[in-house]
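Example 3.2
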Amino acid sequence: MKNKLETEARQHLAKIQELIDHYHQIPFIQEYLKKPINPRNNEENKWLTFYKRTLAKRDEIVQYLLHDILERAIQKSSSSKSSWGENLEDIQREFQRADDFPYLEMPYGWSIHFILNMEKLDYRMINPLLNKVGWFDVDKLYGIDYTDQINKTIQFRVSKSRFFETLISELRQIPVVREREDIFNQMSELFNTSIF
């Protein structure tokens, strides 16, 4: 059991190391490693944020391999048959996978599935559609780029007045912003009358 868990965990670690090697090719990261400096622009900030996140994930996997894997293998070997039943076998398998590899995550979506979430680690996999899923067809969420046509579809589906009503209503819940509601009302008025 331990060998099986260790083999898969080492595959995850190799994937993370490959990504770290990529980051080490970026001139800003090379500069940062010689002498830590603050990012000078958004691109450098993005690289550094994702790089640090990737290092943290590597450390999680190493910690698991060095200290936790044996305990999980013993626990898994001694566990009895599941009481989940046949209808829930797939879900049970996914939760067991999360217990087997606690550094895996369930990505944003509509199914229970634990993965090594590379979208959170590799800046090249940023999905510009993920925060717009309420405004276009969900089946377009993966495998396509953000295009002018998608942008037009989103703009067509977004009601300007409803958007600002919802935004202002939600902002009222934030104490720091509450005092500035008039600014957002003015922004709404300008946007809806196309005066800017």
